[in-house]
Amino acid sequence: MDQAPNTSDLSDTSVGTGASGADGTTGATDSAVPVDPATDDLQVTDNDRPTSDGTGSGRAGRAGIPGSAGAAPSTNQTVLSAHKISKVFWIKGAKHPLHVFSGVSLTLRAGEMLALVGPSGSGKSTLLRCLAGLEHVNEGHVVLLETNLARASRATLAAMLRENVGLLLINPPLVPSLTALQNVELPGQLAGRSAWSNHQLALRTLDELGARDLAKKSPEQLTPPQAAKVSLARLLTQHPKIIFADEPTGRLSTTDSKLVLSSLKKLAATGTAVVLATHDLHLASKADHVITVVDGALGATLEHPSAEEILQALDQTAYGDD
């Protein structure tokens, strides 16, 4: 993973790809797209769903995973890049905008795992959401799976996120009207996988996570750790090309946290790229690359660091040489 020289000075908001409005935001093409709680992805209209012409159905699995979406990307393939992106929030009544981050540039290749590490309120989760296309950036641009997010249509974004992007959130938005098993089956249904193979894959995945006993429960009957397992099972059946995980172990026990990490590492080994936002130094130390984030300022990229090295980098990002 490549990161441009540290250009995250919060006063640097001069680089952009489009004209800014009076409120400091870019045009409509950069607007955030709402997320469908059924899939953790963009809201999908009937026109966006797989059609009877075979799109999304009958595809060979990749890396030996049944029904997964397409062939694994080459390990040299760039799956995510950001060029001098900046994000500001305008708060009602405030005289000045809140600069969340500024001038961020990075590149991530297939099979790599990147951890954005920082305390709560540091801007790491907002950065992750902007990289995933769930929020717009005010300046610069993000290219995700060869798609410029600022220029893509709503339908293009919806299809890309539905088929090739996975989200793992601290509050997994499971569909309340479906059972846990039906939630896990949902990505396969949207992809046109056969009902029988999709059902068996969902059961097998829940079983591998020690969660098969949750299959008939509704989301409201699940504890936060149980809901996290169901969300992880849904992600594993989707087998996306890139995963964005926001505090994926935030509410989990040590045992369940190890299970999440093991699952993400296995997916990365098959070519899936992973972006984590976390304050868990142990989890971050398992990533290939770590970038510290403190008050919107980014530190240098660390390669395979220990938890102690990450802690030192956080101090350096926050306080410099003092």
Which CATH architecture would you pick? 3-Layer(aba) Sandwich
Shape: globular
Topology as a string of helices (H) and strands (E)? EEEEEEHEEHEHHHEHEHEEH
- Secondary structure tally: strands: 13
The structure class reads alpha/beta
> Uncertain spans, ≥5 residues at pLDDT below 50?
4-71
CATH domain fold name = Rossmann fold
Largest sheet: 6 strands, mixed
Strand content: 15-25%
Provide a short characterization of the protein structure.
The chain is 29% helix and 22% strand. The chain has 322 residues and is of the alpha/beta class.
Overview of the molecule:
The chain has one domain: P-loop containing nucleotide triphosphate hydrolases (Rossmann fold), CATH 3.40.50. It contains eight helices and 13 strands. A six-stranded mixed sheet has the order 9-10-11-6-12-13, sandwiched between helices. The protein has a five-stranded antiparallel sheet with strand order 1-5-4-7-8, with helices on one face. A two-stranded antiparallel sheet has the order 2-3. It has helices at residues 124-131, 154-164, 180-190, 195-208, 224-238, 254-269, 281-284, 307-319; strands spanning 2-3, 35-36, 41-42, 78-89, 98-109, 113-117, 139-144, 147-148, 165-168, 242-246, 273-278, 289-294, 297-303. Helix content is 29%, strand content 22%. Helix 3 packs parallel to helix 5 (224-238) and helix 4 packs across helix 5 (224-238). It has 322 residues and is an alpha/beta fold.
